[in-house]
Structures
1.
Amino acid sequence: MRDQCLKNKGLRDKFFDTPGSGHYDTAPMPRPGDPLLDAQSLAAAGAVIEREFRIADFARLAERLAGPEGMATARLALSRIEGVAVGDLRVEATAELTCQRCLAPLQRVLESASRLAFVASDEVPVPADLEAVACDPQRLDLAALVEDELLLALPLIARHAEGEVCTLPDAAASQAEEGGRSATRRPFAGLKELLKH
Ligand SMILES: [Zn+2]
């Protein structure tokens, strides 16, 4: 199990309605058209949920992007393991970021794949290799979960790759760039990005 609190910090606490826990500062905002899921029942039925979300509806994500355009797709396959509701969640979105070298926009595919165990609290043991998500398993907020995954998939520092146009305004910026020397000889770095599209 990964550090089950890691993903919760500053992300999930605010968005899952956990009565009595007092985790969030403001009441979670239900989004119209995004009903909370009963992960317990869906897991018992072995359901697969596929959804599309507008990035513009993800306020926390949108403020980290150059623009709020685009859609995110999510696929959640539910099952029960050792009595726990488990979700295999795959999320993908193409996001417009700001290059931190030239400040021009750049597109990146954000993607993630996680195996999550939906449990009522962090104390509940979860099967091996699953990441615990503390929430009310009968009121799962898939939209918040998807937004969390995309936030975690954001690059720490967005930059154009080699092979992409990146117009550096002055040489001082390249000197300030850490590890710039070792990054200069990577002929395939840009190719890897290209192959993603
Ligand atoms: Zn750039």
2.
Amino acid sequence: MKKEKIYEKGEILTETTAVSLQIKKGKITGIEVEREGRRQVIKTEVVVIAEGGYIGNKELVTEYLQIEPHNLYNMGERKATGDGIQMLAKLGADTSSLGVFENHAASAVSPTDLKWYNDTIFTLTNLPFLWVNGEGKRFVNEDICYDFALWGNITYSQGGFYYYLLNQKQIDYLKDNKLAWTHSFERTFASLTNDPVTHKVGPFPGIMEDLNDAIKNNLAWKADNLNQLAGKINVSTSNLNSTVARYNQLIREHDDRDFGKSANYLEFPFEKGPYYAVRAQSTTLGTIGGLTVNDQLEVLKKNKKPIQGAFAVGNDAGGIYDTSYPTLEGISCAFAWNSGRLAGKSVIELLKQGFKEYYE
Ligand SMILES: Cc1cc2nc3c(=O)[nH]c(=O)nc-3n(C[C@H](O)[C@H](O)[C@H](O)COP(=O)(O)OP(=O)(O)OC[C@H]3O[C@@H](n4cnc5c(N)ncnc54)[C@H](O)[C@@H]3O)c2cc1C
């Protein structure tokens, strides 16, 4: 790698990667950057890391993830590979908040073709049908799909996946008829623009072909009866049978006493097969657990003392969230902008006062 000048004082460098920190006697003395095969060490005693977390780093994700990695579908920034986090971890930064993921809804993903997409299956995944977890049990009020954060978090908490169930009668109905339900994406965007929602989904004229396509792509299964379906999706047969029997009862009584799903969605009892199960899995927008910081955005060690000259913002700063993203979508962007502004103010203060006075 050529050592060449990349940086002139006061310049903003784009398309340039921060590669490593230069450290002398435990203190930051510079940062090495790389651009188009050239490297340069820029002298500095102050760094603000803002690389967007580490969702693009498979090893780190596996270390901090609380579900099997194959159950996580990543929609986040692949260039966020935790470089700055790892540089400051070497200086003793507290990494205890690192394991928080921005869970977002759930997706029907083909394990054999990540690029596979089908509009019908996408829409069905966004509706509150009957959902069962890996034990074959219901686990939530399925109209949680109308809140992306809560939906993402419940999916994550179930091991990162669940199945939604349909039967032939329902599918035949959906082929020709509109459902008086709402697509969760429509609901979310309408709430942002204060528009009314349509309460109309479908019909899905190609639903059979679309389901067969999902079956071919290993994310949906068909069976003549529930016992067979339980075998195919690897859940307890007795749990699946009791879940469906109980769900049918709640539908008949038009009252979800178990989870409180709105009576609007208590349609389609499962009287007979064939039955279908579609797998939905955890989806993330990125990591939002970063290094521990204080309200000046200074990066802290485990003993809560700052690493002098080190700041972290946005997804690189931890401690904002407890264990998951809350139902206040928009705060991760808002925090990225605001923490950047606050870190900028801190850096100005540090440079004005000097290290000795600032850290006294
Ligand atoms: C599909 C999607 C939808 C989202 N929707 C919302 C939403 O509706 N509301 C909301 O609040 N949030 C949303 N988010 C999350 C939000 O985008 C992030 O929380 C926010 O962008 C984080 O900002 P950041 O500055 O920490 O990181 P980023 O915006 O990811 O910026 C980090 C930058 O650092 C660069 N970088 C990485 N490593 C290095 C390196 N070594 N050297 C130099 N540069 C490096 C990256 O390329 C990137 O450009 C969404 C995220 C995704 C993926």
